[in-house]
Write a structure and sequence with these properties.
GO terms for molecular function: hydrolase activity. This is 3-keto-alpha-glucoside-1,2-lyase/3-keto-2-hydroxy-glucal hydratase domain-containing protein. Helix content is 3%, strand content 38%. The protein is an all-beta fold and 258 residues long. It has a single domain, classed as Jelly Rolls, CATH 2.60.120.560. The strands form two sheets. Strands 1, 3, 4, 6, 10, 11, 13, 14, 15 and 17 form a ten-stranded antiparallel β-sheet that branches. A seven-stranded antiparallel β-sheet has the order 2-5-16-7-8-9-12, with no helix packed on it.
Length: 258
């Protein structure tokens, strides 16, 4: 794994069944903010905040949105794990954000270390578990999709260079809470689960392709297989709440089967 090679995957303290909350319900001191046009660590406009025991993504202290896409990264990388995030879309979308960001957020994983991102890099080199809300127009708009800023995956047995691939999930309208689960087995099988339904599987995430801009070329080594990386919650113009971010490290379980 090239992106986070100097920060090897670390375990977190677990409870008796192996699960741990990455969000303590009080603050984001264990997280790292990186927002486009700003240096790492600058939580511009208090974009990511903790209120009512939730991580809230808000833009009420912004002037123009100005493509200030942001990500909130947990402080250490992971490789083999089961992640659970509960989210809901809420509030008013920023009308000066790109149209595709309406009722849109995401969970980035196998991401580069945010401290390797220049100030003007827009998206992290990563794989995205994309979160979408229904537009209330009766059309299908699945959530739990795969998007690939600066990466590719192997889907249905072949290298797939599409930027986004839709899952088979249902459409979730309104501000209802949705449970998103991600099972990541290093550079092997990756599984997306929405409200208990498996909606997508793929494998072999690797660096490659466009969408990421103004990156450090020493980091983007196309063809590098990604077996670990950082996990991040996204801000891109739509207010969203996250009330649960829990992880179970599967490293020992996977090693025991080999």
């Amino acid at each position: 794994m090239a992106i986070a090679a100097c920060h090897p995957a670390q375990k977190v303290q677990t409870n008796k069944d192996g699960w741990v909350s990455l969000f303590n319900g009080r603050d984001i001191n264990d997280w790292i903010v990186k927002i486009h046009h700003h240096e790492v660590g600058d939580n511009f406009g208090n974009t990511f905040r903790v209120e009512d025991s939730m991580i809230k993504v808000r833009y009420d202290q912004y002037g123009a949105f100005n493509e200030q896409f942001g990500h909130l990264y947990y402080k250490t990388p992971f490789s083999y794990y089961h992640l659970v995030v509960e989210y809901r879309f809420t509030g008013e979308w920023r009308k000066d954000a790109p149209s595709y960001t309406l009722l849109n957020s995401g969970i980035m994983f196998h991401s580069q270390d945010p401290r390797t991102m220049p100030k003007e890099q827009d998206w992290p080199i990563s794989v995205e578990f994309q979160l979408l809300g229904g537009l209330g127009d009766g059309n299908q708009r699945p959530t739990g999709n795969m998007c690939s800023p600066g990466t590719h995956i192997v889907y249905n047995g072949v290298l797939d260079t599409r930027h986004c691939i839709n899952s088979t999930s249902k459409t979730y309208d309104g501000d209802q809470w949705v449970r998103a689960e991600l099972i990541v087995l290093g550079d092997s099988l990756i599984t997306h689960i929405i409200n208990g339904d498996t909606v997508m599987r793929y494998s072999k995430p690797q660096i490659g392709g466009p969408v990421v801009n103004n990156y450090d070329p020493r980091i983007k080594k196309d063809g590098t297989i990604l077996s670990s990386g950082f996990i991040a919650l996204q801000s891109e113009g739509q207010p969203v709440d996250f009330r649960k971010v829990e992880i179970k490290d599967l490293t020992e379980e996977i090693k025991g089967k080999k």
